[in-house]
């Protein structure tokens, strides 16, 4: 889905409609992140008021014993964003743990969501299964689902660019926004989503914006691309690494170049559709492959490798300027500056929420020294 045109009306005090999304620092970003969300973030910077959040608090739900790794991954994600074309002059970079309003809103929102509703979240259930957590996960693991609602609603956005697997989280967030506005702001429960702010609600009802490819299959040809499954092509991979990873992809069948091929079961063609911009070239590859017109899997992989490296080359160039201690320091400074602005917005939201809840006793100010 391409970014929507900005509507003429603006939410809250911004002159532009607002966008919020982010990443949990579990490692460097990969092509699945790019097509699922990051490409939309880059495209929306000029027409929207964009906030991009690093959810380092959420990373502790499964890696509480590895704070050093979480800190390192936080800095690496900032570098990935910068390399991908996210511009701190046009977008606001946010560090979750330095925005106290998020934690406070998480507490208030947790009173609006039944525990069994949280546990019915299909994304949460999938994560428990894929990470092999069984019944050993900490209390904070389901709590992060509520915290994610606070991550989003603290900035009162209209759009949340996400991958397909995160849509269930956004739906829960929409439920929380509706429940709060109805309970504390007197909004009619039957009001249309787009009218909640007009009727006095604190929170607009945000919408998910799924990227060009909602779920990019990994290099194993079966599962969603994931660092933990060792099937990812990272935005920071070298040309040699990209060639090796795509070259090892199983095409879904064994065939000679002169034998007809099945495009539908060959995951490499999913990459061709996604990364080769010349549609005529993709159509020709598919046609020849189906006919067995002396076109083997290696030919298709070579075309995909070329397209992926063409996409990543400018990212690699930008990232090269961010390596080393100076790059780390720059990443931290960008986070600090962006988070200062983020706190202004989140504190405004929290004050509005507290006022609606009858908790508006006095104001406060958060500063970054």
Structural class: mainly alpha
Overall residue-averaged pLDDT value: 91
Question: If strands are numbered along the chain, what order do they take across the biggest sheet?
Answer: 1-2-3
CATH class label of the largest domain: Alpha Beta
Beta fraction of the residues?
A: 5-15%
Shape: globular
Low-confidence stretches: 5-14
Oligomer: single chain
Total tally of structural domains: 2
Rg over alpha carbons: 22 Å
The name of the CATH topology of the largest domain is: Rossmann fold
Main beta sheet strand tally, sense and closure: 3 strands, parallel
Residues in helices, as a percent range: 40-55%
The total count of strands amounts to 5
SSE topology string: EHEHHEHHHHEHEHHHHH
Distance between the termini: 40 Å
CATH architecture of the largest domain: 3-Layer(aba) Sandwich
Total number of helices? 13
CATH superfamily of the largest domain: HUPs
Provide structural commentary.
This protein is mainly α. It folds into two domains: 18-215 and 324-356, Rossmann fold (3-Layer(aba) Sandwich); 239-320, Tyrosyl-Transfer RNA Synthetase (Orthogonal Bundle), CATH 1.10.240. 49% of the residues lie in helices and 7% in strands. It is built from 13 helices and five strands. The chain has helices at residues 31-44, 60-63, 67-84, 100-110, 115-119, 122-130, 140-153, 167-185, 239-247, 267-275, 279-291, 297-320, 324-356; strands at 18-23, 49-54, 91-95, 159-162, 207-210. The strands form two sheets. It has a three-stranded parallel beta sheet with strand order 1-2-3. A two-stranded parallel ribbon has the order 4-5. Helix 3 crosses helix 12 (297-320), helix 3 (67-84) packs across helix 13 (324-356) and helix 9 (239-247) packs antiparallel against helix 12 (297-320). It is globular, with a radius of gyration of 22 Å. The two termini are 40 Å apart. Residues 5-14 have low confidence and may be disordered.
């Amino acid at each position: 889905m391409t970014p929507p045109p900005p509507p003429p009306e603006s939410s809250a005090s911004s002159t532009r409609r607002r966008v919020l999304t982010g990443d949990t620092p579990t490692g460097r970003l990969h092509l699945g992140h790019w097509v699922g969300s990051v490409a939309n973030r880059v495209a929306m910077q000029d027409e929207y008021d964009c906030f991009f959040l690093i959810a380092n608090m959420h990373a502790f739900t499964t890696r509480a014993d590895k704070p050093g790794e979480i800190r390192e991954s936080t800095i690496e994600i900032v570098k990935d964003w910068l390399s991908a074309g996210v511009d701190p002059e046009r977008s606001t970079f946010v560090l979750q743990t330095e925005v106290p309003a998020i934690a406070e809103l998480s507490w208030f929102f947790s009173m609006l969501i039944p525990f069994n509703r949280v546990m019915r979240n299909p994304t949460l259930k999938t994560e428990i299964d894929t990470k092999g957590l069984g019944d050993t996960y900490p209390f904070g693991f389901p709590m992060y689902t509520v915290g994610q609602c606070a991550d989003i609603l603290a900035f009162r956005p209209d759009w949340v660019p996400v991958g397909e697997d995160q849509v269930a989280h956004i739906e829960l967030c929409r439920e929380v926004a509706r429940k709060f506005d109805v309970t504390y702001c007197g909004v009619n429960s039957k009001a249309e989503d787009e009218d909640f702010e007009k009727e006095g609600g604190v929170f607009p009802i945000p919408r998910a914006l799924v990227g060009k490819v909602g779920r990019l299959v990994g290099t194993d040809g079966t599962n969603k691309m994931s660092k933990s499954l060792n099937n990812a092509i990272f935005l920071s991979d070298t040309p040699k690494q990209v060639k090796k990873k795509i070259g090892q992809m199983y095409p879904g069948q064994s065939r000679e170049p002169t034998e007809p091929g099945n495009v539908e079961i060959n995951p490499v063609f999913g990459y061709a559709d996604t990364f080769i911009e010349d549609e005529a070239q993709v159509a020709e590859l598919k046609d020849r492959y189906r006919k067995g017109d002396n076109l083997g899997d290696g030919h298709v992989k070579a075309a995909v490798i070329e397209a992926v490296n063409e996409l990543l080359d400018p990212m690699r160039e930008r990232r090269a300027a961010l390596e080393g201690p100076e790059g780390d320091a720059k990443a931290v400074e960008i986070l600090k500056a962006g988070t200062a602005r983020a706190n202004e917005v989140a504190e405004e939201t929290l004050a509005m929420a507290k006022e609606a809840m009858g908790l508006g006793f006095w104001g406060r100010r958060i500063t970054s020294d």
